[in-house]
């Protein structure tokens, strides 16, 4: 689509605020964090925010007061706050799908007024939440039994993307809060091995499947759900009526749920204004609620809501999602950083970064703006990372001494969980690593310091750490349901801020469609040897080889 003069005027990279940031970046040059800290003994305290239960230290970033002021001016001229307010009002800010974006309603109090198409959404949100609570209690107490009257011992969530990553991540994160006499498994991959491994040691009579799919058309989920039904019926003697006691659904699509054979009384609804990657605090969190119980689930929602209010009301200079979003813009657009690492120092957050990958990369992995023009600026980063300290013995070498600038978030907790007993003694060692890493990344070790240790001259360059590698530290007392909600909401809104600055639609995901269409076209070639018109020479040769290896 050609640019009109008005579009040109609105172009982000031609705004005076953008140009000012570019100039400022040049002036700052390679200013070192060592110097910034030396020049301001209060920097560590000044560049800290306390939001809810989160201490957010952003002092180890390559920024000055001027950088932060310029970034805030950029947010102002891009109308980020106005778009945020439009989201909270329920306006249809997902322009390409003409949908409201209201995950914030999922954790709002009952008396909040939010309307979509003239209809209040809050009564429906709380009605479903209450239905989830009743159901969860029935499963947890043993009142809900399987077809043969046996108590449910295993809960298998079948879903993919946002219908899997959220509950799977939060289940791991909140394991100490889970009912330990129930087993939970999460099946997402269409690779039959996923379902096989999940159910091979389970008794069908004691197993409940929660089929989670916003659309109820996703091929992976429907394929797995059909196979799960087959496994159940085989195990229970083929009586179709068993399905009602062993399958429930979470979806926006009642028609498809009924078509699949699940009674819609056993369906937990959500709505098109909840994006898949923003959905785990909707009914998509049903498996999580069964695991942790309704009270803990509500605590988690309260944590989300706390950050929603902060995002909505805190002034921009003390607004954590604004701050983190703007720092990401600073590195992605003015330091050419391509990636962003999220490094939780908690084993329980082992799935957190995988969850954030969908949240961030499906939201902001776009190269056209909201009006359909190709953007001339970098958008969302590659998000990656694994829990500390494992990464330290794998890829941190590159973080410390590689040629790439990789901004990183370090997330840690003061208290280990009570259950650990004597193992809690590990915690100080874990956290000593946590603090040491951000210190080493920021300040490094000069050649003079290395030489003073008596290191032979030829090894000095190898043992030198340049430092100046930016990190955010997020520290909380402990990983509670509320703190998890706070962390997730913080990242949700950070992603929002960045999408607003880049003027992209953070709430659609057209980029996943082409692969789906092509897979459908190729499948008959694999199974029946059907001709696929227009298949390129590489893919058609690979398909032939595949068929021959399969013995077809
Ligand atoms: O990957 C595309 C996507 O549409 C995600 O946005 C979504 O979370 C996932 O597929 C699963 O979709 P559904 O919940 O409709 O099965």
Shape: globular
Beta-strand segment tally: 13
Small molecules (ligands, ions, cofactors) in the structure: 6-O-phosphono-beta-D-fructofuranose
Low-confidence stretches: none
User: What's the mean pLDDT score?
Assistant: 96
Beta-strand portion reads 5-15%
Largest sheet, in brief, is:
6 strands, mixed
Q: Please give the count of helices.
A: 23
Structural class: alpha/beta
Distance N to C terminus: 46 Å
- Radius of gyration equals 25 Å
Strand order of the largest sheet: 1-2-13-12-10-11
**Helix-residue proportion:** 40-55%
Structure description:
The chain is of the alpha/beta class. Helix content is 47%, strand content 10%. The chain contains 23 helices and 13 strands. The chain has helices spanning 5-10, 16-28, 33-39, 43-46, 65-77, 80-89, 122-141, 165-173, 192-199, 219-235, 243-246, 254-260, 286-292, 294-313, 320-334, 352-364, 396-401, 426-443, 447-452, 460-463, 481-502, 513-528, 537-549; strands at 48-51, 54-57, 115-116, 119-120, 154-158, 183-187, 207-212, 247-251, 267-269, 339-344, 382-384, 408-413, 471-476. Strands 1-2-13-12-10-11 form a six-stranded mixed beta sheet, sandwiched between helices. β10, α16 and β11 (382-384) form a beta-alpha-beta unit. The radius of gyration is 25 Å and the shape is globular. Bound molecules: 6-O-phosphono-beta-D-fructofuranose.
């Amino acid at each position: 689509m050609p640019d009109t003069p008005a579009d040109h005027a609105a172009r982000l990279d031609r705004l005076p605020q953008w140009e000012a940031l570019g100039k400022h970046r040049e002036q700052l040059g390679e200013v070192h964090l060592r110097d910034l800290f030396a020049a301001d003994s209060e920097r560590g305290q000044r560049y800290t925010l306390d939001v809810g239960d989160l201490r957010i230290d952003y002092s180890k970033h390559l920024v000055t007061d001027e950088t932060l002021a310029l970034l805030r001016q950029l947010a102002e001229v891009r109308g980020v706050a106005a778009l945020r307010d439009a989201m909270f009002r329920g306006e249809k800010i997902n322009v390409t799908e003409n949908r409201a974006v209201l995950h914030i309603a999922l954790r709002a109090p009952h008396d909040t007024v939010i309307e979509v198409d003239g209809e209040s959404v809050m009564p429906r949100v709380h009605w479903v939440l209450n239905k989830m609570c009743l159901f969860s209690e029935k499963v947890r107490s043993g009142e809900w039994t399987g077809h043969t009257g046996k108590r449910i011992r295993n809960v298998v969530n079948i879903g993919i993307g946002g219908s899997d990553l959220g509950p799977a991540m939060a289940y791991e994160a909140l394991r100490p809060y889970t009912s330990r006499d129930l087993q939970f498994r999460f099946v997402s991959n269409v690779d039959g091995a996923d379902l096989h491994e999940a159910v091979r040691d389970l008794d069908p009579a004691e197993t409940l499947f929660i089929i989670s799919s916003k659309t109820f058309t996703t091929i992976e989920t429907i394929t797995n759900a059909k196979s799960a039904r087959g496994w159940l019926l085989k195990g229970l003697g083929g009586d179709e009526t068993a399905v009602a006691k062993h399958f429930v659904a979470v979806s926006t699509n009642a028609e498809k749920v009924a078509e699949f054979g699940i009674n819609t009384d056993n369906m937990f609804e959500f709505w098109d204004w909840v994006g898949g990657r923003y959905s785990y605090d909707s009914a998509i969190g049903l498996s999580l609620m069964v695991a942790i119980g309704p009270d803990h689930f509500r605590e988690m929602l309260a944590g989300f809501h706390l950050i929603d209010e902060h995002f909505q009301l805190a002034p921009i200079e003390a607004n954590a999602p604004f701050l983190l979003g703007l720092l990401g813009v600073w590195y992605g657009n003015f330091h050419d950083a391509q990636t962003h690492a999220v490094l939780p120092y908690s084993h329980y957050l082992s799935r957190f970064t995988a969850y954030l990958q969908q949240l961030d990369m499906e939201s902001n992995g776009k190269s056209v703006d909201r009006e359909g023009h190709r953007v001339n600026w970098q958008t969302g980063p590659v998000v990656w990372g694994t829990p500390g300290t494992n990464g330290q013995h794998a890829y941190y070498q590159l973080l410390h001494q590689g040629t790439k600038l990789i901004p990183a978030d370090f997330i840690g907790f003061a208290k280990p969980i009570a259950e650990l007993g004597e193992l809690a003694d590990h915690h100080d060692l874990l956290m000593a690593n946590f603090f040491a890493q951000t210190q080493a990344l920021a300040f490094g070790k000069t050649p003079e310091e290395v030489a003073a240790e008596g290191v032979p001259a030829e090894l000095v360059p190898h043992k030198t750490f340049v430092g100046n590698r930016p990190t955010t530290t997020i520290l909380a007392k402990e990983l509670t349901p509320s703190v998890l909600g706070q962390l997730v909401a913080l990242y949700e809104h950070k992603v929002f801020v960045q999408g607003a600055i880049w003027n992209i639609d953070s709430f659609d995901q057209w980029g996943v469609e082409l692969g789906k269409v092509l897979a459908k076209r190729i499948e008959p070639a694999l199974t029946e040897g059907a001709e696929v018109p227009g298949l390129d020479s590489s893919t058609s040769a690979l398909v032939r080889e595949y068929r021959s290896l399969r013995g077809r």
